User: Fold this.
Amino acid sequence: MTVTSPDTTAVGGRPVVPSRGALRPLGQDEVRITGGFWRARQDLNATASLPHARSWMDRLGWTGNFAAAEPDATAAGRRGREFTDSEVYKLLEAMSWEVGRVPVGGAGNQTTVALEDQIKELTEAIAATQAPDGYLHTAFGRPGQPARYSDMQWGHELYCTGHLLQAAVARARNGGGHADPLLAVARRAADHVCDTFGPDDRFGPGGTPGICGHPEIELGLVELARLTGEQRYLDQAALFVERRGHRTLPPHHFGWSYFSDDQPVRESTVLHGHAVRALYLAAGAVDVAVETGDDELLRAVAAQFDRTLARRTYLTGGMGSRHTDEAFGDDFVLPADRAYSETCAGVAAIMLAWRLLLATGDGRYDEVIERILYNVVATAIGDDGRSFFYAHTLHQRTLTTALPEDEEQLGFGGGPRAPWFEVSCCLPNAARLLAGLSCYLVTADDTGLRLHQYADAEISTCLIDGREVGLQVRTDYPDSGTVTVRVTKTADRPWSITLRVPQWAAGAELVTTYGRRHVPAGDIVVYRTFAVGEEIRLELPMRPRFTAPDPRIDATRGCVAVERGPLVYCAEALGGDTDLDTLRVDHTVPPVDTEAGVAPASVTIRARFDAPGREAWPYGPPEPDTSHAVAQTKPLDLVPYHRWARRGPSTMRVWLPTT
Ligand code: FUB
Ligand code: ZN
Assistant:
């Protein structure tokens, strides 16, 4: 299959517009989140996180590296790491999603008008920095800087270009249209990439290997191909995917796997190496596979993701358990207190799962996306929208300490959330996802609409056969498990509304005008000629539950965690008032809601705190197992993991020992 029909409408932003697949994504003009859990976070993103990110990027010179007036003047004095251009592009992408979410003329459009101005201003600066041949990166190629593509391993040039292309596509699809100046910049940059890294095996006479140490360009090129209909962008992306894995980048002590260059994509069996790199590459490979009809590649990546989910993923959906190289660990190496689980890896895993969902229609990916959204993305951002987690530990042993508002943090692990990091890839990444989140709620399939994520929403779209339909969704999810779907526009022939019953929701019920019935986990299809005003109600039991780890995860053997609906819970000791490391849980007594009807719901379990262990030497003979001594336990309240580190210094743990 080739990309022959450009997305001529270029409106109604959606992040991914595949030309084939089981599901058709809907855009921001068709789905709006109107209230609830995610709307609050979208608003915070718009009013706090975007301006916060902008002010740090200005202050640190990352935006200033793009020189509007005198491009060469800043070359030597460029500030920040070699990938900071990408943060500006991600911010631009997030701003573009936000403009699409609240279009000019709509409610709240003062923010949008200001964002429009910023997008234009940044676009001008970026365009002024672009070389006449289309090359664009602020750290290479100008007087006083290293030569272009002289450091393919670490230079991040193509990585940054990939983010530029994604930003430009987002801008075009959220009001900018095909004539937008940022899209023109992106096309010139993409043409330059194709001219430079095209079908010849090597770049330049020196034989520099033609792949970037950080995948990302693949995603940008395919989406630009989808938007513009330009076949060479897709061909180039496919070439980059095929070139990977042949160890053409220079050797490094992290190994070729760090750069996703140790094994061809279609030969790998599991995601490995640097987590964000591996996930971006896998997502790009799915895009290539879908557009080229390469089902072998699609199956290979789907199998890798399956195995990664089965063996290399934290309960929260987080990925990456090695701090040194930000990498996936081996199978079942998932230590709670060393969880890396970078926010960007969460965003990237959602990108991959979403592409696989669209391609295959397999609802398992919905649950993966939901798990990561509620337990990584929602955890990442502080209540003020101006602080964030880079890494997501599952066990904070030492008391978190407040961080100054005006200092960049150098270390990434543990809490609390920091206002900014020297490497601040995560905030703009979460921001672009949150701003465009309504795109991940609903799709169209052959017969109707499929609801993938539950949130208050208004949906208005056309079915594949052109009939206009509309839905209104009302829910307090995930505080409550009741989701009411009301038909607001319908057609005079049957069509389907498909709802998702998560695996954890045993005992779920569906209520329609024809009565109430139990529904199993999986996709529930209601197919008929709906009337306007007709309601379907899904009731998902939100009883808290204990969850046990696979025994092969040594680090958490003998522990349980608590979940309620899609939320993972944790024990948090404010001020370190309790030693969570001596905690023992009685898991024979099921967890209960602490106070029914109060949100956010805390959950109560029974636990005891043992006397601290041995003083001089932490080893000795085994002690008798008294874990079931219910009499010694007392109630312990747990909070949703995404709420931790919001109420002052604390220690925290997700996995709770039972013995
Ligand atoms: O290298 C650019 C970004 O910085 C990566 O995606 C993150 O993991 C962080 O290392
Ligand atoms: Zn990051």
The mean pLDDT is 93. The chain is about 30% helix and 15% strand. Residues 442-475+482-539 form a domain with the Immunoglobulin-like fold (CATH 2.60.40).
